[in-house]
Amino acid sequence: MLSSHFAIFCIIIVSLFALHECEIGNMEENLNASKIVIYLSPCVRKRCSFSLFKNCHCCRGKYPFCSKNIKVCEKECLRLNPPPAT
C-alpha cells in the first residue's frame, strides 16, 4: 500500500511540474492562432421571379442585385454594398 501511495504522489508531482511549465501567455497565443475564419458570402439563394425553385443569388445588403451566377452576384454585391472598414 505504501508503494502505491508513493507512485500516486510521484504522478501528482510530475503533473504539477508539467502544469507549471505551461505558461498562460503561451496558451493564449495558441488559442488566438487556432481561431477559424468563416467566409460569409454577400449573396443568398432566392427565387427568381415566379420560379418554384431557389435558382438565383441575391445581395444581402442595402442595394439589391440578383444573378443566376454566384460569382457575378458576389462581385456585384461587393461593389454595391462594400464591407465596413475595420
The 3D shape can be described as: elongated
Low-confidence stretches: none
Relative helix content: 40-55%
Q: Give average pLDDT, whole number.
A: 77
By DSSP (H or I, 4+ residues per run), the number of helices equals 3
Please state the CA-atom Rg, rounded to the nearest Å: 28 Å
Q: Briefly note the structural class of the backbone.
A: mainly alpha
- Series of secondary-structure elements, N-terminal to C-terminal: HHEEEH
- Strand arrangement within the widest β-sheet reads 1-2-3
Number of strands: 3
Tell me the β content: 5-15%
How is the topology of this model organized?
Elements: H1 2-21, H2 24-33, E1 43-46, E2 56-59, E3 66-67, H3 70-80
Antiparallel strand pairs: 1-2, 2-3
Task: Please give a structural write-up.
It is a single chain. This protein has three helices and three strands, in the order ααβββα. The radius of gyration is 28 Å and the shape is elongated. The mean pLDDT is 77.
Task: List its traits.
3 helices; 3 strands; elongated; single chain; three-stranded antiparallel β-sheet; mainly alpha; 86 residues; 48% helix
